[in-house]
Amino acid sequence: MKLLIASDIHGSAKYCGELLAAYGREQAERMLLLGDILYHGPRNDLPEGYAPKEVIAALNERKNDILCVRGNCDTEVDQMVLSFPLMADYALICAGKTRLYATHGHIFHPDHLPPLQPGDILLYGHTHIPAWEKRGEILCLNPGSVSIPKAGSERGYMVFSEGVFEWKTLSGEVYHTLEID
Known about the structure:
alpha/beta
């Protein structure tokens, strides 16, 4: 299974469009969104191309391809306009022997892990900073942000396929690769 993983669109139609172009280019089977889809939140400036209604329309066209978890900026009113489930706090995805625990990152994150088994992988967003780190026997991975990157990082996403994670810019340039056992 090839999975595109992204987080923190924050209502930017411009960068949502670039993410969807990347999804098409990657030919992934599913897109996993780690929350904060429509609203920018009170701590962030408006992202470039802020147009939540356009993001709604664009993502709803791909509703059958999207797996999504709720971010701290996502609410029930967002679920009323999105045609794919948004309100789950986490998703557990089994890809062969690999178990992925996907969450936004505002509750569970590397410093506060959910109940996981050795070898499981925590996927989280929220910080807007790409990350790949081990916490004991748990691998913690963050794709960064699609629209509001922080700490000098690039706008981007991750791709997971056949035991390999790749971090890419929205234009598709690979800047980090991680092969798991």
